[in-house]
Amino acid sequence: MLILTCPYCGVRADETELSPGGEAHLTRHGPGSSDDDFHGYLFTRENPRGVHFERWRHAYGCGKWFHAARDTMTLEVFGTYPAQTTEPPRDICDAITARHPGWNWRDFS
Amino acid sequence: MKRYSAFAIAREALRNHTGWTRAWRAADPKRSYDVIIVGAGGHGLATAYYLGKNFGITNVAVLEKGWLGGGNTGRNTTIIRSNYLQDPSAAIYEKSRALYETLSQDLNYNLMFSPRGVIMLAQTQHEVRGYQRTAHANALQGVTTEFISPAKVKELVPIINLSGPRYPVLGGLWQERGGTARHDAVAWGYARACSDMGMDIIQKCEVTAIRREGGKVVGVDTSKGPIDCRKLGIVVAGHSGVLADMAGFRLPIESVALQALVSEPIKPCMDVVVMANTVHGYMSQSDKGEMVIGGGADGYNNYTQRGSFHHIEETVRALIETFPMVSRLKMLRQWGGIVDMTGDRSPILSKTPVEGIFINCGWGTGGFKAIPGSGWGMAELMAKGHSPLTDAFSLDRFRQGRFIDESVAAGVAH
């Protein structure tokens, strides 16, 4: 059972209380963007075997969207943080680097 | 290769079974091959087999990180059907189903193919309309399916409870020629036939890098050393993204865990496959008597080959209403496989941005049924550069908006 702490209301919620929302920190390319960018935004995903940043919604709680950093191989959760950001906060990056030396944000696989 | 036959069994019975040989050779990698297939699951081995059989390309190695057929080939619920909606899907799945009918004879290996029939239950008005539409589409595609009444469902499945209350059975999409096969035997049969053609099947050989020169593939680095090749087929299901990353491109794929479970063996009680897509549950009875139950997929990315318990709970809760007698069954085993999901729930069989690399992935929750057809098409694609079976499933269909939307036919249940 996956357990994430909602960064807004502080509830330790198990996954039945949450709705997964896919990869986080996508750049929303829209009208006027190149075909490559738009295709990438719509379809291409990191899908890493390891550290994954993803969106979750506290659907049966406060209802808010937040982000989580999680390892898809071990299900280890490195932390959750509010969604109003374009990159993960420092402390979460540090927690990941402590576990995976040499890991860098946006330097996947 | 010694042929398997009734005569061979009698002969071996008379000499204490000392004459059986290994079904396939354990091989060490050569320096180079014409074609390397990464992934010795059903799809990879079928690709290699039809490369040899249909195109005479036998200087082939099939590399496998773990053991043969140890991924999703050994983890699925063995259902074979071809009642899809879109024309390209119907073509490849029906080709596959048709190949399964004679595959045991073709491979000289008993796949225990059992065309016992598959019902997809319609449990909402929406599903009734959807499956009637599919039945009409199948009629145009030359796939024999029929929308049947609840009374006919009851006749085919005496243990079913039609009246709900939560999930009443309003009808069903019936494919009489669908069924099941022994999943491991499919991989073993193909492996034996490939080995017999002189191909090398190399287990415990993990690909660690893909070597390219001037935008063209020249070989792979593996845990058993570097191997050169002229063409490379990536057929690794859930780990496709990892291999694509090594080759320097990305895929429109996300990997999630899909679960299944089996009960204790009981006496024969259901001789068809029943799928209930509304409740994300499907069930058939294996030859051993176990009820084989497929569940739902997790909603989040996962490579752990196990799934969330609450999906099992949801599946079983719904099945108990539809099949009240299973409520007292004990479940023996539960397991998960990593399925590679595309946005339109259809597979990708395609050339890639790297010349000489071909990819076969994205079968999502329903690859087992497609193994022979997928191998047939993929082999033609790799040998000739295109195939009528696979052209619509190219990687660029997402950019071009040519989706093959099978989210209804393939949403979860296979």
Question: What would you say this structure looks like, in words?
Answer:
Chain A: Pfam families: SoxD. The complex is a heterodimer of chains A (109) and B (414). By secondary structure, chain A is of the alpha+beta class. Chain A has one domain: 2-Layer Sandwich (Folate-binding fold), CATH 3.30.2270.10. Chain A has helices at residues 35-42, 90-99, and strands at residues 3-5, 12-14, 19-23, 51-57, 65-71, 77-82. Chain A has a 4-stranded antiparallel beta sheet with strand order 3-4-5-6, covered by helices on one side. A two-stranded antiparallel ribbon of chain A has the order 1-2. Chain A starts with a strand and ends in a 10-residue tail after the last helix. In chain B, strands 1, 2, 8, 9, 10, 11, 17 and 18 form an 8-stranded mixed beta sheet that branches. Chain B is built from 11 helices and 18 strands. Chain B has 414 residues and is of the alpha/beta class. Chain A binds chain B through residues 1-2, 15-16, 19-20, 22-23, 35, 39-40, 42-49, 52, 54, 70, 72-75, 108-109, and chain B through 239, 241-242, 245, 250-255, 298-304, 308-310, 343, 398-399.
Which descriptors would you attach to this protein?
heterodimer; A: 109 residues; alpha+beta; Folate-binding fold; 4-stranded antiparallel beta sheet; two-stranded antiparallel sheet; 2 helices; B: 414 residues; alpha/beta; FAD/NAD(P)-binding domain; D-Amino Acid Oxidase, Chain A, domain 2; 8-stranded mixed beta sheet; 18 strands; 30% helix; globular; oxidoreductase (chain B); Sarcosine oxidase subunit beta (chain B); FMN (chain B); FAD/NAD-bd_sf (chain B)
